[in-house]
Predict the 3D structure of the following.
Amino acid sequence: MRPLAVIGNVNVDLILGPAEPWPKAGTEIIVDHDELRVGGSAGNAALAWAALGIDFDIAANTGTDEFGRWLREAFGGRAEKWPVRPEGTTLSVGITHPDGERTFFTTRGHLPRLSLDCVLSALDGARLSGGYVLLCGSFLTDDLTADYAALFDWADTHGITLALDTGWPLDGWTEKNRQATLGWLSRCGCALLNEVESTTLSGLADAREAARELKRHMRKDAIVVIKRGPDGALAIGCDGALVSAAAPRVEVVDTIGAGDVFNAAFLAALAGGRALQDCLQAGTAVASRAISTLPRSYGGPVVTATGETAS
């Protein structure tokens, strides 16, 4: 199995809910569920890999407070080289709604100060050679994002394929953000976007056409994946053929991090040598299980194309 790593936003999530209707100012409501957990796109993907029995590395940072200490403890030895910033640790309060959707309130915290030096101190390029590195939280990690060109050069030097999931820009898909993202995609071997992100970024309403347009901006051997929630996922592979996978029908409990869990399962299957459609099916199956279980479950270990259990 090829090596795996993730770079990006790890923060604390406090999940509360479900809440309906939205409370009026100055009032208080009681909700049925609360959970304090590791969050952020990189954090969610890492949790899924750990649950699936996948070996991986992770580059992140934390603040100096108790939340930062808690995050580092959650990742044990993998967090030994994470820088500790003087800022408070980023906190997201997620309010869930009965339909499975959610609303976030997030502090800026430590995430903007994740830098290229942080990444290079945490990851061994030679160890990751020939593998896949998930890059996420692009619009939250200001210092690192400013050095993306150097990060892409580092990946190329070590034969590492970058898989990009930018997340939604805080100021929306402005023309500046669109052009920056298209430039990043031109240096990446895999795009992992949800349907709204892909159609907005490409300017095309149909997900299939959006995938083809985005692939046009990437290298010939790149993979474009569009995550479509309850409608499953589709992808265009190296050969230009479009494949898709349906999502299992489940009763949704909590959709937070669903796309991140998909990313983890998809890349684990891809690193294990599975066919593209099998990778889509792995992503949709694990994400569907995660959003329909409380406490969250990811299923058993991923099996590679050779029939071995990934480790």
About this structure: Residues 303 and 309 are 5 Å apart (CA to CA). The two ends are 8 Å apart (CA to CA). Confidence is low (pLDDT under 50) at residues 303-307. The longest strand covers residues 11-17.
